[in-house]
Amino acid sequence: MAYEKKMQTTTAGAREFISPSDLTFSWDGCHRCLWLYYNHQVKAPLFMPLVADLADMQELSYIGKTTADMHPALPEGKVHSHAGFVQSKPIIVDGVETKFAIRGKYDLVMEFPDGTYGVIDCKFQARDNDKSGFYSPQLEAYALALENPAKGEPKKISSLGLLVWSPVKIRGASSGNFGMELKCSWYPIERNPEALQTRLNEFIGVISDSVPPSKDNCEQCRYISNRRELLGNE
Predict the structure, then answer these.
(1) pLDDT digits (tens, 9 = 90+) for 112-152
(2) 121: domain range?
(3) Domain count, the chain
(4) Coil, strand or helix: which one is 176?
(5) What is the rounded CA–CA span in Å between residue 46 and residue 50?
(6) What is the pLDDT of residues 21-44, one digit of tens each?
(7) What CATH code is carried by the domain that includes residue 23?
């Protein structure tokens, strides 16, 4: 079904900005929950203790640093900015300008000697493993917004990647403060704007169409169904 036809089913209060992170976690999850969020602003509460604090500590530790200070595998450059908001021009689907645009907050933007830029997403993982394939649409979405901004000058993005911290061991005496030894890994992500466009086409198709079925193992949908079955409309 073409985008213009699907738009006939959207609600008046639907979100018009697509978060880069929703192109990974939310897309990989239940599409019914995704549809409810983008059409009716209904989203289950999410509590992730320490995640925001650890992410802030990680990003702040890189302010003013060069890539040589961060990881030896990074291309030569320096930190240009951190925790910046970006918004793209309207997204094109099937040759039609949609009402949707990318909007989100990146972790780090790097500046390279050749005048190009890079987007780095900082991750704190329990185990050091390469999740670059999973996060590729998210970082490519930041690149899209930086290269096609709704306002301001575009930036040419030549590099994407994940800078991952993972715990190794605890250091310190039992009578004093403790420290944590962390491993830092760099996982580059190859540019793939075509794959992002495919993901955006599918994503916008889902949120612009009628409500999709629930994912079989969606705990949120299961909870709602069980609650309704037990309590009815209460």
Answers:
(1) 999 999 999 999 999 999 999 999 999 999 999 999 999 99
(2) 3-169+176-231
(3) 1
(4) coil
(5) 13
(6) 999 999 999 999 999 999 999 988
(7) 3.90.320
